[in-house]
From TrEMBL:
The modification 4-aspartylphosphate is found at D56. Residues 7-119 form the Response regulatory domain. This is Response regulator. CDD domains: REC. InterPro entries: Bact_response_regulator, CheY-like_superfamily, Sig_transdc_resp-reg_receiver. It holds the Pfam family Response_reg. One of its GO terms (biological process) is phosphorelay signal transduction system. SMART domains: REC (SM00448). The keyword Phosphoprotein applies.
Length: 125
């Protein structure tokens, strides 16, 4: 039986934040893909087929909420859990398109708990 790594797509315009998240989550055996903006996000999601999407709230072009709504309104991607991230406290609670939200700086233990809650028993085929 082949065990598939859980796939996480991280979208954040802060490349240092992307690198830290990629390194930390790769250590826990997640397969990570990163993007600095939401350009062609649906295409990236359809090709990479992530089990989870970590999406920054403020991005060049469309913001994280707009991108989350596009993901959730697409029949091929609407079952992918989305976690919105922001450095602005109190901003994310109002949005219902996502499956969760976290505030920066991220606490790795809290992030791992949220990931486990959302995709802990989900298998990528």
């Amino acid at each position: 039986m082949k065990i598939m790594l859980k796939r996480i797509l991280i979208v954040d315009d802060n490349t240092e934040h992307l690198d830290v998240l990629k390194d930390a989550l790769s250590y826990f055996n997640f397969l990570i893909e990163t993007r600095c903006d939401g350009k062609e996000l649906l295409s990236v999601v359809e090709n990479f087929k992530p089990d989870l999407l970590l999406l920054d709230y403020i991005l060049p072009g469309d913001n994280g909420v707009d991108l989350c709504q596009k993901i959730k309104n697409n029949a091929q991607t609407n079952d992918i859990p989305v976690i919105l991230m922001s450095g602005y406290l109190g901003v994310l609670e109002q949005f219902t398109c996502c499956n969760g939200f976290l505030y920066k700086p991220l606490d790795l233990n809290v992030l791992l708990e949220k990931i486990d809650d959302l995709i802990g028993d989900k298998v990528t085929v």
